[in-house]
Design brief:
With 360 residues, the chain is α/β, with parallel strands linked by helices. It has helices spanning 14-21, 54-64, 79-82, 120-127, 131-146, 149-157, 168-177, 220-229, 247-258, 274-283, 297-305, 317-324, 346-359, and strands at 2-9, 27-34, 49-51, 68-72, 88-92, 99-101, 113-115, 160-164, 182-183, 207-210, 234-239, 263-268, 286-289, 309-312, 330-331.
Length: 360
């Protein structure tokens, strides 16, 4: 019997993976979860094993000697420890562990896909930090040099036998860097999401959701700047509960939002359950995603499902990908319908519902 150990941190997507693996027959499947003290408990399934010590976790995996270890992300614990896994490794990436910003002088690691993540206004907010913070970033970069983090990252990546990415083009890009890697088809899906139906927005002004987190790669400020320049009066929800390590960016963005005349920014600082969050998405007129690489795919699919308009920057790889799939998506800069983003058309609703089974 094939033996598989899934290794993950405690996050809100792992329940979907557990539910899928529980449906498999004739496979011995276990889930080992690394529980960090500052993480809330998102997982509802009971048949899992928790660890708080990384070394003990790796020792247990090697003692169990599974045929495969599936890493659900590979940047939630020390890379050096992960490199000690003796079994064959399957890597599932959501994006953070494979993308790095080539123009950020404080970037601590060059990851598999090194690209430009931040636009001009966002770069200004990122650079507007106290000198002590900049020094701490440089210190971490020096520390990573001496702890050989780049070496361990490269070594771990080269141990992977199979790789799962959210969208197909990401695997193609990785394949160029890792020619021997093989594709592992896996999606974090939840059938409950399909039960949320289209709700037409009847507010007098647009309600927009911008991005999916506080991560600067959402380029929130560049989107807000464009909306303000176009004098679009609207309410903008901005998910802001994570990540935890962008304190000064969060402060700078909130200060910038206070200067805006036409946009009422509502920062969602506290965690919202997935069900309530998708209900919030359904209440919005449209979504604007400012990232240049794959991100927030669950949010985007949900907007498609409920027939809402979705906007990207034209240089976003996701804009290019969805355009090739003949989806009715929009360019932030040039689409005239941007000013009519109160609700989706019948055509879009049909397109959104059709898109879901195609992608998932």
């Amino acid at each position: 019997m094939l033996k598989i150990i899934n290794l993950a941190e405690n996050n809100k997507f792992i329940d979907f993976a557990i539910n899928q693996f529980n449906q498999l027959d004739n496979i011995d499947v276990s889930f080992y979860i690394l529980q960090k003290s500052f993480n809330p408990n998102f997982i509802r399934n009971k048949n899992i094993i928790y660890f708080t010590d990384e070394k003990k976790l790796i020792e247990t995996i090697n003692k169990e000697n599974p045929d495969y270890v599936i890493l659900h992300s590979f940047y939630f614990m020390h890379l050096k420890h992960l490199c000690k896994i003796k079994s064959k490794i399957i890597a599932c990436s959501w994006g953070y562990d494979i993308y790095s910003d080539s123009n950020n002088k404080y970037t601590q690691l060059t990851k598999i896909l090194d690209t430009k993540l931040y636009k001009d206004k966002t770069v200004k907010l990122l650079n507007d930090t106290p000198i002590i913070y900049k020094l701490s970033c440089l210190f971490r970069k020096v520390k990573h040099f001496f702890t050989r983090e780049q070496y361990w990252y490269n070594k771990l990546v080269n141990k992977f036998e199979y790789f799962s990415t959210i969208l197909p083009y990401e695997f193609d890009l990785i394949k160029q860097k890792l020619p021997s890697i093989k594709r592992f088809e896996f999606k974090y899906i939840n059938l409950v999401d399909n039960q949320i139906k289209f709700r037409e927005n009847k507010n007098k002004e647009p309600i927009i959701i911008i991005g999916n987190s506080a991560d600067p790669s959402n380029n929130h400020a560049d989107i807000l700047k464009l909306l303000e320049e176009r004098k679009i009066k609207c309410k903008a929800y901005i998910p802001f509960s994570y990540p935890y390590d962008v304190k000064y960016y969060k402060e700078n963005l909130k200060n910038y939002a206070k200067t805006l005349k036409y946009i009422d920014c509502i920062f969602l600082d506290n965690y919202i359950s997935r069900e309530n969050y998708f209900e919030l998405l359904n209440s919005c007129s449209c979504a604007i995603y400012g990232f240049t690489e794959q991100q927030a795919i669950g949010n985007i699919y949900q907007m498609f499902r409920t027939g809402k308009k979705v906007f990207f920057f034209k240089d976003s790889k996701m804009y290019n990908y969805f355009s090739k799939q003949k989806l009715n998506i929009f360019n932030i800069y040039v689409d005239k319908c941007f000013f009519e983003c109160y609700h989706a058309t019948i055509k879009q609703r049909g397109c959104g519902r059709f898109a879901v089974p195609f992608f998932m």
